[in-house]
Design a protein that fits this description.
signal; transmembrane; glycoprotein; mainly alpha; about 1150 residues; about 65% helix; about 0% strand; fibroblast growth factor binding
């Protein structure tokens, strides 16, 4: 084999040297290629003299006419110059058959003349004496040695190089002149019908098309084209060797030279031939619109040969040979077309060295960059892509060959399909690894052109070619600076980069040691079926976010690695398809539930919304990601962008944390109603809150604080709202039993309070309430915006018009809020400053009581005062909504109002009936002291504001409109509405209303403070006339009445008038008030819980009276007889004195 190669090289370089040595002045093109050629004319003339013997091609009759017509006159005296001129002529220029035959014989004689070796010895004597001294003379081995050394760039003699170059051009002009080539490839040429191998006058001397035909067949064989002929192994090696030896000078590839001659002048006119420079220049302009198709096709063929053997690229092989040896990338040098020779293997091997932090020369890295860009530009250079993606290209991507568009089209198809199991997707993934565009975005020409404007504006601070450019583009995805075309190209590329953690060079650099230590990852270009690339990243992020897992301590990542993992997760959250595990598990559910959700980030939102409907594997994947987001909400990139103003103003310290552990989300919720909060941010925050309601694990701080309590007290409960209810009920029950130890831990109780307050802000965060009232919201609160508890407040205001089920839910909510006012979001929001002013030291469950006590303070905010009044109105509708009253009157309510309780329905207001019942008993002075105190407060409050008396409102609505419209309209809390009804008592026609007013009058005589109009009018008189008399039980009212009757006392005119009005009202009330007879007493007894005891006592009393009557009968008879015997003038009974004037009894 070595001998064959030596013979091949020998003949190639013989013809090259002869051409260089014997050439004088050449045509303009060759002079441009080598401007220093003229100074070596002496050597060339010497070589010409040795071989030409005085005969000149230009003077031969066969070629005289063609030479004079085609070649410049100055070249006529140099046979090689004439030969070069004729064989490089334009395609349309024909020469005579006889001249063709003469040229063939001349070239054949040149390559077989014994004098050739002597010329080589003369011109290349330094190199031969040093490097080729051991070669045997007379058999052509010396020239073979020279060619090998030239191919390895080891020949330093200029004339020797020129000599070999010229002779190579002669040899490569016809495959029959390449020694051994015809023998190895003759059969394949005939089978492929690439051309004739016979000599004769009818065959032209330029046969480069034959080699080109064989090269195309070799390329097609690698692509496994249907019906493709398989070239024999010996011919394959010969073809690749010819391609390698022609890699220095594009003139040696005769097919490409003729196909691209005009394009070379157009694009690379100033590029000198040699060292593969013209090839590289043409490659760079391959997809220019003005590039001819025949040249583009020839360039593609050569690029495909380079992909099979990197040595076909002179510049790449020369620049990278030391690095290849250094890192053992070409161990099998005896197999030029083996695995080690493939361009992809070279790129992977050297890229692995770079990623390991090892040194690769700048020249080699530059060449690698060029060829990585070349592979990304033209999919056809990768046989695996052509073979595996043929169907996808024909179906989806035909006609998009230029500038990497076909590859991006294939990427888009794979991305839309969402799977990487297919052979095409695997071929694409392999190509992305080979080209490694993540390291330098410029490798991807389609991406570079699409994103140039974005890079110039958004990423101009980053050095050109830096890997952070791609990260910068991802950070600006879906922002105003991003353009649509760049967005598509970026996501198509990131889809594949996200599936192999090693393709993000920054991540790999920072995490390679952690991945090897914790996740058992392999080297950059190594894979393992036990730890595929996707699994490595999953392993990294689990260790980045979870310090404890499955009850055991987890090894921590380095800080730098954790930062990069966090960056990747933030970027992947923008598109569900950038998360390989999630997309693989959720393909079915994405198609079923989210096919119409095409906006950024909406697919994941859709999956989270349908979490309960997803398949188990998808539900687990979505749940894990959501759980991760709850720990680090910055993964929700769109949310963070929308909330940037709020974060900057209120949460910037938390946003700077590497992983916020749920603090940032809690801060955003707490500041959701600040002026910096825009609509987009509020929507995103609420959306995430709604997602958190699906599983308590989705609230990181709640999960960490309460996970042990949940397992112990609320097992098998997952939904957050159910867990909150379960734990809240446990806390409440423990509080009711004062001597019982709290079962819920302190840290859980604190976080539970946070969760309860957050849930009170939006009705949608209480799913049961929201679903029960959905129709009522549409009907009564359609224009009310969600959030800020506005919808809940709307339902409260329309409570009487709600459906029964919704009404019951709202009542239960109000009951909870009254027991714990801190859960009343609207009250806490509106009265936030007043709570700080008046109630900062008060227990949260007494906040409303504190606010009520300070309601009439001059410092009270009007809006807060209005909100307090609303809550008072609500409380007075049902004693169950007033926990203080309920506790104080727990014995009195069943004692006096059992009949009302018996007719009551659960979760429905009693419309103040129980409180009205207690008010009557208060007037009768029959309540316990604690209950009496609470009722007196209610009487005082309701006397000032009629709205706090639900029964009065219920019974007197029409009468108020008819008789007291002006007072009602003023809405001043001064008791004027009640006063109006009292004054107009005679005009009230509604019996229920009249009864309520009479009850008010009955209560007024119990204390002056329940009659605000009288209290205001008589304030000074009470101060001076009744200062020593304590309030309550009618004492101050009696004092004022005595003073009114006492002529020595002068009351204020207004007080005197009001007292006289009260006397008249009470007198009328006494006349019209229904008498409480036996029926009322019987009703009280029968409804009393102690009725058995009462009836038994009554029966005992009756029996005793009967017995006493029998006993007293005899005594009565004796007394009667004594009376008859008594004398007149001795009275039996002394009369009583009259009652003191001023006391008026109504009964």
């Amino acid at each position: 084999m070595a001998a064959c190669m030596q013979q091949l090289l020998l003949l190639i370089f013989i013809s090259g040297w002869m051409s260089s040595a014997l050439g004088g002045k050449l045509d303009a093109e060759n002079t441009a290629d080598n401007p220093d050629r003229g100074r070596n004319a002496a050597g060339e003339d010497k070589a010409a003299a040795l071989l030409s013997g005085g005969w000149k091609l230009a003077e031969d009759a066969a070629c005289r006419e063609d030479v004079s017509r085609i070649c410049p006159k100055h070249s006529w005296n140099n046979n090689l110059a004439v030969l070069e001129c004729l064989q490089d002529r334009q395609d349309e220029t024909e020469i005579a058959v006889e001249c063709n035959h003469l040229l063939w014989n001349y070239k054949l004689n040149l390559t077989t003349d014994p004098k050739f070796e002597s010329v080589a010895v003369e011109v290349c004597k330094t190199t031969i004496s040093g490097e080729c001294a051991a070669e045997e003379r007379g058999k052509g081995y010396i020239v073979s040695c020279l060619i090998n050394y030239r191919a390895n760039a080891n020949i330093s003699e200029y004339q020797c190089n020129q000599y070999i170059t010229k002779m190579a051009r002669i040899v490569f002009s016809d495959y029959r002149l390449i020694l051994g080539f015809m023998d190895k490839c003759m059969y394949d040429i005939n089978q492929l019908q690439c051309g004739a191998i016979k000599t004769g006058p009818k065959y032209i001397h330029t046969q480069g098309e034959v080699i080109a035909c064989l090269e195309k067949a070799l390329v097609s064989e690698a692509e496994e084209q249907p019906g493709q002929y398989t070239i024999r192994e010996g011919c394959k090696k010969a073809i690749m060797r010819v391609a390698e030896l022609s890699s220095d000078d594009f003139h040696l590839d005769r097919h490409l030279y003729f196909a691209c001659r005009e394009d070379r002048e157009r694009f690379c006119g100033n590029t000198q031939a040699g060292e593969g420079k013209v090839y590289k220049c043409l490659f760079q302009h391959k997809f220019e619109e003005s590039m001819s198709e025949k040249c583009r096709d020839a360039l593609s063929t050569r690029q495909k040969l380079i992909a099979q053997d990197y040595k076909v690229s002179y510049s790449l092989a020369k620049a990278c040979e030391p690095d290849l040896r250094k890192y053992h990338c070409n161990m099998d040098t005896a197999m030029p077309r083996g695995k080690e020779a493939k361009l992809s293997y070279l790129l992977l091997c050297l890229e692995a060295a770079v990623h390991r932090g090892q040194t690769v020369s700048g020249g080699c890295q530059g060449e690698m960059l060029d060829y990585r860009r070349m592979l990304m530009e033209d999919y056809s250079l990768s046989p695996e892509i052509v073979l595996q993606c043929r169907r996808e290209i024909d179906t989806h991507c035909s006609g998009l060959h230029h500038k990497g568009r076909t590859l991006h089209c294939l990427m888009r198809v794979s991305r839309d399909r969402g799977a990487l199991e297919g052979p095409c997707q695997k071929a694409l993934q392999t190509l992305i690894q080979e080209t490694d565009p993540g390291a330098d975005y410029r490798i991807d020409r389609a991406l570079t052109e699409a994103c140039e404007s974005v890079i110039q504006t958004a990423c101009k601070h980053i050095r050109n070619g830096d890997p952070m450019i791609l990260s910068c583009l991802m950070e600006h995805l879906y922002t105003d600076k991003m353009v649509e075309d760049c967005e598509h190209r970026l996501l198509e590329l990131q889809y594949f980069i996200s599936r192999d953690w090693k393709l993000d060079p920054i991540l790999y650099q920072k995490c390679q040691s952690d991945a090897a230590r914790i996740c058992h990852a392999h080297g950059w270009n190594e894979t393992s079926e036990f730890m595929p690339p996707g699994a490595v990243f999953s392993c990294l992020y689990r260790h980045a976010y979870r310090s404890e897992m499955q009850g055991r301590q987890v090894r921590q990542l380095s800080r730098d690695c954790k930062t990069e993992v966090q960056r990747i997760l933030h970027q992947r959250a923008l598109d569900v398809r950038l998360d390989p595990s999630l997309q693989k598990r959720c393909m079915t559910d994405l198609g079923k539930w989210c096919s119409e959700k095409t906006e950024p980030g909406k697919e994941l939102e859709c999956l989270q919304y349908h979490l309960d409907d997803l398949l188990p594997s998808c539900r687990d994947a979505v749940g894990n990601l959501t759980e991760l987001e709850s720990e680090d909400i910055q993964i929700e990139t769109l949310l963070i962008r929308a909330c940037e103003p709020v974060i900057h103003s209120y949460c910037h310290d938390l946003a700077d944390n590497q992983i916020d552990t749920g603090d940032l989300m809690e801060c955003l919720v707490a500041n959701k109603h600040q002026k910096e909060m825009n609509e987009r941010c509020a929507v995103e925050v609420t959306r995430f809150q709604l997602i958190q309601m699906k599983d308590f694990r989705f609230s990181y701080k709640f999960k960490m604080a309460c996970k042990e309590d949940v397992l112990k007290l609320c097992p098998n409960i997952k939904k957050k709202v159910d867990v909150v209810i379960c734990l809240s009920n446990t806390v409440r029950n423990d509080n009711l039993q004062e001597d019982r130890e709290q079962r819920v831990s302190m840290k859980c109780r604190k976080q539970l309070r946070v969760e309860q307050v957050q849930m009170s802000e939006d009705i949608r965060l209480v799913p049961d309430l929201y679903e029960s009232c959905r129709q009522d919201i549409k009907q009564h609160c359609q224009n009310v915006v969600f959030g800020n508890a506005q919808v809940i407040e709307c339902l409260k205001e329309n409570k009487k018009r709600l459906t029964q089920h919704c009404h019951q839910k709202v009542f239960k909510l109000q009951e909870t809020e009254m027991m714990d006012p801190e859960l009343d979001f609207q009250l806490m929001r509106v009265c936030k400053q007043m709570i700080r002013r008046f109630c900062s030291e008060i227990d949260s469950k007494y906040l409303l009581l504190c606010l009520k006590q300070n309601k009439n303070s001059e410092l009270m905010d009007p809006k807060c005062k209005q909100m307090i009044t609303k809550r008072q109105i609500t409380q007075n509708t049902d004693y169950r909504l007033n926990p203080v009253l309920r506790k104080a009157c727990k014995a009195d309510i069943p004692k006096f109002c059992q009949n009302i309780l018996n007719n009551a329905k659960d979760d429905n207001e009693l419309e103040g009936q129980v409180i009205s019942c207690l008010k009557l008993k208060y007037a009768d002075q029959r309540l316990s002291p604690d209950c009496e105190g609470q009722i007196s407060v209610i009487l005082q409050e309701s006397a000032l504001d009629y709205r706090l008396n639900p029964q009065l409102q219920l019974q007197c609505t029409d009468e108020m409109v008819r008789l007291c419209a002006e007072e009602v309209a003023v809405q001043e809390q001064t008791g004027q509405v009640e006063e109006c009804l009292k004054i107009n008592l005679l005009r009230i026609s509604h019996e229920g209303c009249k009864k309520e007013v009479l009850n008010i009058l009955k209560g007024d005589k119990e204390d002056v403070f329940v009659d605000p109009v009288l209290q205001t009018a008589c304030a000074l008189d009470i101060k001076y006339q009744c200062a020593a008399i304590p309030p309550g039980r009618g004492r101050q009212v009696s004092c004022l009445m005595e003073a009114l009757q006492d002529k020595r006392v002068r009351l204020q005119p207004q007080c005197k008038k009001r007292l006289q009005d009260r006397i008249d009202m009470w007198s009328y009330a006494a006349k019209v008030a229904p008498t409480e007879g036996f029926s009322n007493l019987a009703e009280q007894v029968l409804t009393s819980p102690s009725k058995s005891f009462i009836l038994s006592m009554l029966a005992t009393c009756v029996i005793l009276l009967f017995l006493m009557g029998l006993l007293c009968g005899h005594i009565t008879r004796s007394v009667t007889e004594d009376v008859k015997d008594r004398k007149p003038g001795h009275p039996w009974v002394i009369p009583f004195s009259k009652d003191r004037i001023g006391y008026i009894q109504l009964e």
